[in-house]
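Researcher: Structure prediction, please.
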Amino acid sequence: MASIPNEFIETLLDRIDIQEVVGARVQLKKAGKDYSGLCPFHSENTPSFTVSQQKQFYHCFGCGKNGSAIGFMMEYEGLDFIDAVKDLAQMAGMQVPTTAHAGHKPKTNLYAVTEKATRIFQQQLKTNPVVIEYIKNRGISGATCKTFQLGYALNEWDALLKRFDPNEHELLKRTGLSTQNDQQRTYDKFRNRLMFPIHDKRGRVIAFGGRAIEADQKPKYLNSPETDLFHKGNELYGLHLARKHSNESYVLVVEGYMDVIALHQQGVCNAVATLGTATSAQHISNLFKVWERIVFCFDGDAAGVQAAEKALNTALPLYLDHTIIDFLFLPQGEDPDSYVMQHGKEAFTQAVDAAMPLSEFLLQVISRNINTNSIDGKAQLNEKAKPYLNQLPKGAFKSMMAQKISQISGQALVANKPSKNSKSPQQEPTSAGDNPLRKLISLLLNVPKFCAGIPKELNLHKLSFKGVEIIDKIVEIQRINPQINAAAMLEHFRDSDYSPYLGHLMRIYDHLDESEKALEFKDIINYLNQLTSKVEIERLRNKQMQSGLDSAEKQTLVQLLRQKTNQ
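Model: Predicted structure follows.
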């Protein structure tokens, strides 16, 4: 994929003022050295959202979202990284350079192909009375068809291929609209199907779903394969329309295209559907960027309950205290399409209001087939609850769930400690007070020029604290670009595993001015010097007792002990 040079990102963030970027979209007021306002990413009555011109960084104390101007544009406008940089560059009057990796092919022409195919399918639908009658029988109006850009793929092997120039056939293949058989014959992937264009969050067509018209046609639903434009684990059907047409504080997640379309036609415009796959962590994360409440809506049969359990397990690591997830189970034999068509919007909305909270569904899952009135059952409940609770991020909800299970079981629930490799993507970092390296990272992120003040002889790798590799990376970046600012430094870690934690670490020293930060930096370096010396003394003494020291090691030990005496 194409990349943008780090040097350009750093220059862009030097030239862009985050206060102007955010202020054009959020009402801000001066609050001391920073600006504050109501957070655009969650509902609140008291401002907890701050913008720092000094750092070129935003942070919300309520929902925890933070980042540079690029991160803000990605969150607020729903852009990917490349498009966010392009929009900011346009504001700054800069031309974005890109470095394409070998074998990279631009996506621009692919969007043109999918848009053209959409128009062709729409035209073909207008001239097919059988499919039009099918749509009418499903209760879908012409206006709704137009909104969702529904179409029809002809029952021919090369109907779409013939509408494109031969030099565009490779692009058709790359979008998943054509395919090849074992004899290398190219043909249309979708034939004799009602076509549902799938859009990204910006409204661009990236893929298609096709529903069989004939009863014996298999499969019933056929989706585009994974392509350069389409990754089904990241995309949700109808998301662009839900964002555009609904002001609701929650979003409905349903299972099918027709569910979304039927709900939209009845005025329930805040519905999206997964694309032939289980709900993914990325789906949930994307939805929480826009809405604070997610309502999963499933059929009330065994398959619906099973799908709900999968969604539950996926959601647990992402379930923060300011978010809400509910589960709506419709009556047996009903789906959102049939229910809303038969009972109307008001009845469906009432059902949503009465949806089961995640806490209640979680208790149902944990206690299933357990007799909680017996001692054996209570012990079993306690043990079964542990892996579920261990997935939850630290917070009030996790504590309250543990208390509830303890009440039912009659014994205190001690959750297992999470493994070293299990990390919640949005879990808050622990306090910086228990780790001097976290404090050092915070200072280096805030004032990158402090990197030059780290003594060369200070070997932090001797310590058992985590975070040394982050410090090494920060120092390396600052060495290459000594004038880098805080926001640009943070952008270097956007795609790393550390990204969710570093934004929070940026806030530790907000109460200090730069001179006070310099004193704090000096104190931490002195402390780390003493700590590394102590660790090395212990190592040398242990070796002296076990196998003896060579002359160089003896000299080092004497020097360290002398330094310790003088401190």
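Model: Confidence is low (pLDDT under 50) at residues 100-104, 415-434.
Researcher: Thanks, that helps.
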